[in-house]
Specification:
Elements lengths: L1 H10 L14 E3 L2 E3 L1 H12 L5 H10 L12 H12 L14 H20 L4 H4 L2 H13 L6 H12 L5 H10 L14 H5 L1
Antiparallel strand pairs: 1-2
Amino acid sequence: LPGMMMAMIRLNVPSVFMYGGTILPGKFKGKDVDVVSVFEAVGQHAAGKMSDDDLHALECVACPSAGACGGQFTANTMACVSEAIGLALPNSAGAPAPYESRDEYADASGRAVVELIRNGGPRPRDIVTRKSLENAAAIVAATGGSTNAALHLPAMAHEAGISFNLFDVAEIFKKTPYIANLRPGGKYVAKDLFD
């Protein structure tokens, strides 16, 4: 995802970022589970705290649909960034992969690109500003997003010719409250942020 956004900025042609969406959570013993749940279960199994049958049952339900990992890992973090920075349509980043609204966002994104071409812009470098990068960093911090974004945001800034580095990101991270209790460290999955 960050590479695609960097390419949009570098090429600076009318474009709209479209994320494929997050996976839906699985259900195991009444709880939402995801791929990290399987990793944790493998450790529990190795320690003798989970049976073969339970591990197998969890593995069979943890990833029930198409989509990127269900926590606030790099893909979902950078999807939030795409929207916060202005390269994606509003509300388009959060819809899970199997939701019908994903098709609607794809259609709307295509129509938006046609309008951008027809109107001659705005182009990505018109949209990506220092302020939009700061906004994106705040979204990452507020959602407990992947720390990989601390490297991807300055790389995107570089493509736009904007001075914005790891220290700038760290300062924003320090002053932004964490408000979304998302996995991997929290309770909720990315789908919950959308719903």
